[in-house]
Amino acid sequence: MPSRCEDSLLVEARSTTRRIGRTFALACRLLPRDIRDDVYRLYLVFRTLDDLVDEARPGAPEAVEAVERWCDTGMVTSRESALLGDLDERHGLPREALRDFCAGMRSDLEGAPIVTEDELDAYCHRVAGTVGIVMAAILGTTTPGADAHAAALGQAMQRTNILRDIDEDAAHGRVYLARETLDRFGGRLDPGGREALLRDQIARADALYRIGFAGIPLLRRGRYAIAAAGGMYREILRQIEREGYGARPGRAVVSGPRKLLVAARARRPLPTDDRFHGFGAAARRPGSAI
Known about the structure:
Blueprint: H1 8-20, H2 22-28, H3 33-54, H4 60-73, H5 79-91, H6 95-110, H7 117-139, H8 146-164, H9 166-171, H10 179-184, H11 195-214, H12 223-242, H13 256-265
């Protein structure tokens, strides 16, 4: 008989990934079949916790605490900890990374302000770099040094999310950019007045993508899928540039055909310098970056 983590939760994990993480779901199709479902399960854990916290739903602190308890003791007290326990039996999950992810969720629950770029880097590592590390554990790596690259790719994707969602977050009273950086560029988030700020932040994200892509050859499996996911996400930055660096409000959306072109390019050998820029305009590096 299939276990609970192998039937109803797997169905939910697949549908959640395809419904919410559409770009990630497209990349997941490129994963080897025998690990694809485990990646869906992992996505469900992270997505559930993130949604509970982001929407300040009742039970969010308890859900985070249950994962922390599993990390510390192995005790299963929630759906998410049951999924993690199931995955851990097959892949040996890095519990310190999962604890750090929970720390990121707690900082969101507390509404902790982000003042410096170092604090923003720490935040992006906790809520997304850790996801990269846990993903690397499922895919397998050829060296422990691969974790740093996996974390950088996760951080780059989180910074991309922040830039894509500036207007949506602002409408909900949330700002995830560093206060010192906002002040340095005049504190303006209004459309038409943030080009210099976005140029600076895009350069920082691109620097992290370069580090992340450099580690893809260190993965044992799923290299093409991760390259495609990273390339499609990075293309959001190019779309922001094409649309005039926030000259009009709203999300920068990459079209389906362009995503497929980016994914196709990911089959090519991955350079680790500035020449790799997804599909479209070359990466720009005005001023200083990370």
